[in-house]
Amino acid sequence: MRALEEKILKEGKVLGDDVLKVGAFLNQRLDVRFLMEMADEVVRLFDGVAIDKVLTVEASGIAFAVCVAHKLNVPAVYAKKGGAANVSGDTYSAEIYSFTHKASNTVVVTKEYLERGERVLIVDDFLANGAALNGLIDIVGQADAYVAGCAIAIEKGFQRGGDKLRAAGYKVESLAIIDEMSSSDIKFRG
Ligand code: G4P
Prior knowledge:
Blueprint: H1 2-11, E1 13-15, E2 19-21, H2 23-27, H3 32-45, E3 53-57, H4 62-72, E4 76-81, E5 91-98, E6 103-110, E7 119-127, H5 131-142, E8 146-156, H6 161-167, E9 172-181, E10 186-188
Parallel strand pairs: 3-4, 3-7, 7-8, 8-9
Antiparallel strand pairs: 1-2, 4-6, 5-6, 9-10
The chain binds guanosine-5',3'-tetraphosphate.
């Protein structure tokens, strides 16, 4: 999505080799009108795909996921971090290792919020190594629901998580894919 690439170039900041700060519009200050335009693009990319629910993980995926859910007119659910792994039996859970934070989180979804047979669109702000998406895919499987696809705002293509998921057969659509970045330049795929 050209407008997103331009926004990243204008408002994003590259930290170190592999972190892109986009707090100015996506992660902390939220440019809601623009997020809604991004959501319109997701709707276009998933035209013809049946979707019953949007699933994301807290925290910074929620804003974009809510916009996508609004445009698709379906509910949004987010996995909560720091839950206990299925102690009471009323949650689905997965372990997500954050490469960025070098720490693992258990994420949980209350069972009644995901129904058997539902077609779930997984949405997140970033896709890097794919740990978060793999955890969410696992949770969808635990619910006997289906992954309709994955919609991502910004994919860091050089970290390969997206390519692995596509090779595994998932429809992964990212609005911007970064193949190379440094403090002086960002190169987008395609
Ligand atoms: P992965 O899930 O694709 O494997 O990625 P990784 O472990 O590297 O990402 C961990 C967290 O960092 C995720 O959020 C992810 O959205 C975020 N993230 C990854 N790369 C970037 C980046 O370049 N810039 C920004 N701004 N965020 C990035 P989180 O820490 O789990 O949660 P939260 O920040 O949403 O609370």
